[in-house]
Amino acid sequence: MPTEHSAQRAGRMPRFERRVLLGGLLVAVPALLVALALAWMPWDESLRWTCIAIAIAATLLLARWQYRRVVFPLYTLSGLLEALRQGDYSLRGVQGGVLGDAIYDINALAERLQHERLEFEESSYLLGKTLAALDSAVFVFDEGHRLRLLNPAAQRLLDAERHRLFGLSAAELGLAPLLEGPAARLLTHVFPGRSGRFDIRHAALRSGGRGGQLLVVNDVGRVLREEERAAWQRLLRVLGHEVNNSLAPIQSMAGTLATLAARDPLPEDWREDFRGGLELIGHRAEALGRFLSSYSRLARLPPPQPRAVELSALAAKVTKLEQRLTIAVEAGEPLSVQVDPDQLEQALINLLRNAVEASLPDGNVCLRWRRDGERAVIEVVDDGPGPPPSENLFVPFFTTKPGGSGIGLALVRQIAEAHEGGVTLTAREDARGAVARLWLPLTQEIGWQGGLTSDA
Fold it and tell me: Which InterPro entries does the UniProt record give (predicted)?
């Protein structure tokens, strides 16, 4: 594309070409003058040869002068181009010389190349830092399946020094089977630096017109073990807290009753003390049993058994089970969903129970549903104090209610997610209170193991 500078010079002869033309004409001037003089004036033989010698000398001097004017700027131009070829973009030429137009273009090219190299170096530095920070092992092979690039995670996986790995083939590294088969898969593999279950992904690459292979290895086993360890730690903390809350008063009361039984004679009110102590022990044992039963119910939720359920009929059924408050039902459009009716009923019962307990003694609770695109949305609205400011509302065993088990909302979320849905609990925007919102898909149904199968 023509530049502004080239457009300005398009209508006239470039300066360098003009100077070459004028210099060439000037070189020919002595010979022309001598020829004219010899043709028009009578010269004797000695004077004629003297003029010819002077003309030859003048012509040679002017030719040398013209040679220097033409060749030296070309040397400068050649030096600038050589610097560009060697990757030195810092040199610039003086634009006012005889090759000013060409120097202008070369200076612009050098500036552009310098900017592009800076961007390339910054991108390469960022890529190197990113690869070094990845926990995933990254390998790059050339068209001959020889290793050309790897990150620190890949080096640790192969348990070898970098300079010993470069240039080795995938077969020599034991990675050839990973470059075959599906582009993404899970498998158990033994590497020199680690063994376990890995997520393997590979793809074709092209660099410099040549093919190559990218291999990424993720240690999913380690991630799962860390998550499992964290889950066990959370579970043990909760179980230890609940068990200690029940065993501490039982142990204390057992010691008190043992001390009382050792007294001789027994006090007159020993029967009342024994009865009260045994009642306390029984009450705490019952509370511990309820907690363990709730945990067992959460941990053993069976896979959903879906069938068509009409939301209006289900709403009429669950609202009759709550006797402490009258539940208002806002009937929406007829909606039929593919769900496990027993599990969805249990989820709605838990949501209604929470809403009623928040609205007692004389509050209002409303159950409604609607279609939202490809989802059915069920909402339980109350005018209680609103949800507590916590991000742990759906965490198992977390509760803000005295005597609560912390199982209800966790069970609701587990049921919703088993049906490829979800649940939220937020504050109302129009008034005081909370909105529990549970949504389920309308266009897909849940298989026996929780997998998705198309309606079609």
Answer: HATPase_C_sf (IPR036890), HATPase_dom (IPR003594), His_kinase_dom (IPR005467), PAS-like_dom_sf (IPR035965), Sig_transdc_His_kin-like_C (IPR004358)
Tokens of 70: 């033409």
Are 335 and 422 in the same domain?
yes
Q: What is the largest CA-CA distance in the chain?
A: 170
- Domain boundary pick from 47, 81, 116: 116
**Residue 62 is assigned to a structural domain of this protein:** yes
Q: Among 267, 138, 151, which residue's Cα sits nearest to residue 212?
A: 138
Distance of CA 430 to the CA centre of its chain: 36
User: CA–CA separation, 166 vs 41, rounded Å?
Assistant: 86
Last residue of a domain, one of 195, 223, 251: 223
Give the type of residue at 315: A
Q: In terms of Cα–Cα distance, which of 92, 67, 69, 97 is closest to 79?
A: 92
Same structural domain for residues 409 and 425? Answer: yes
Q: Are residues 82 and 185 in the same domain?
A: no
Question: What are the pLDDT digits (tens) for 109-162?
Answer: 878 888 888 888 888 788 788 888 888 899 999 888 899 889 998 888 888 888
Separation of alpha carbons 142 and 204, rounded Å: 10
Say if CB 306 and CB 339 are below 8 A apart.
yes
Q: Which residues contact 143 (CB under 8 A, 6 or more apart)?
A: 210, 211, 212
For residue 212, what are the contacts with CB-CB under 8 A and spacing of at least 6? 140, 141, 142, 143, 148, 204, 205, 206
Contacts of 215 (CB under 8 A, 6+ apart): 138, 139, 140, 141, 170, 175, 178, 179, 200, 201, 202
Are 100 and 17 a contacting pair, CB within 8 Å? no
pTM: 0.44
> pLDDT (tens digit, 9 = 90+) per residue, 70-124?
777 777 777 777 877 777 777 666 655 556 667 777 777 878 888 888 888 888 7
210-219/137-142 β-pairing: antiparallel
First to last CA, the chain: 56
